[in-house]
Amino acid sequence: MAQVAELVESAESAELTGPQGSQGPQGSRESGRADPGLGERVDAFVREHVMPREAVLDAGGPEAGEALRALRDRARGAGLWALPLPAELGGQGLDLAAYARYAEVEGASDHGPAALGSAPLLDVRMLLRHGSARVRAAYLPRLVAGELRACYAMTEPESPGTDPFLTATTAVRGADGDWVVSGRKWFTSGAAGADLVTVLARTDGAPSDRHGLSLFVVPTRSPGFRVVRELPVLGASGQWEIAFDEVRVPGDHLVGERGAGLSVAAERLQLGRALRSLRWLGQAQRAFDLLARRAATRGGARGPLHSHQLVQRHVFESLLALRTTRPLVHEAVARLAAGEDAHVEVGLAKVAAARALQQVVDAAIQVHGAAGLGPDTPLPALLRTGRAARILDGPDELHVTSVARRVLDAYA
Asked: pTM of the predicted model, to two decimals?
C-alpha cells in the first residue's frame, strides 16, 4: 500500500496535461507524447477488433463482458492500453494535447475507449486532484488497470439536468464522521456494471440554493444502493436510474471540499464535453467514409451514384461539416491542456460536433437508401448517438445561451 501511495503522490505532483509544447507523433511516449505510427495502430485495432464485436457489446450480458475482457487483453498485448492515463499508475502517460488525435480514432466506436482502457480518464483525473489519500490508494490503480468501473451520477428525475442547484439528493454527516446519502439519480451511464459511482448531493441548504453541493465516491456494493431500472435511449441500452436509500459513505470518500462539488464537477464537465466531441468527430468520420465509399462504388440504371449532383452535394456538405468542426474541437482541447479558460471553445465544440455527427450520418443514410436503415451498417446506431448528443451533456440551447452571454459580456 505504501508503494501505491508513492505512485499516486508522484502522479499527482506531475502536470496532468504533460509537458508544454507537445507536438504529438514527433515526440516520445516517455515524455508524455505520442510515437510515430501510433494513430495507425489505434485505428487498425478499433476497425479490426472492436467494430466487428459491436453487436455483441451493444447487447450486454455475460457474452458482452467476455468480449470486452478479450479486447482489453488484446489492447494490453498490443501496447495500446490506457494511452492518456498516468504512467505511474499503469497507463501510457500521453498528455491531453497528444491524446486528442487518438481520442477521435478510439471514439469511432462507442466501445473503443472502454476496450482500450481510456474510459476512466475523467474519474482518474478527478480523484488525482480531489480524492483523499485513502480513496486514491484504494481505487486509482484498479481503475487504470480496468479492474474497477466507475460512473457519474448528477441529474435527477424531478429536476432539469441543466440546473444542478435543484439537486434534492442529500448527504447528512453522522457523529462518527460518515455520510448518509439519500436520493435518486437517472441517465447514469454504465451504472448497472459499475463498481463506483460519484454522486452529487446536497450537504447544506435546500434545493435551489447555489451553495452546499458536494461530491462523494460511493462503492455500489454499499447497502442501500439500488439500480432502479434501465433507461433505453432511442432503444439503446447503457443508461440507468439508480437510488441511494440511506447509503452510508466513509467520511474520507468526500471528493474535494464540502460544498465545492460544483467546482469539481465543472472541471470534469469541461474535459468530458471536449472528449465526447472528439469521439463524435471520430464517428462522423466513420459515417463519412461509409457515405463516400457507397457513392463511389454503387451503380444503378441511371449511372453510378457519384455522378449525381445531389449525391455530390451530400459529400460536399458532409466534408464541410467535418473540416469546419475539427478545428473547433481541437482548439477547445488545446485550451484545456494549457490550463486556460475554455468555456466558449468547449460550448462551440460540443454543439458543432453533435450537429456534424447528426448531419453526416443522415447524409450517409440517405445515400445508402433502405440499406442505411437496416442492421447491415452501423448507421442507425450512429444516428441515434448523434441525436442524443444534442441533448446529453447539456442541450444545444444551454450551450448557445451560455456562449452568447460570455461573448456579449466582453462587449458590454
From this structure: 0.88
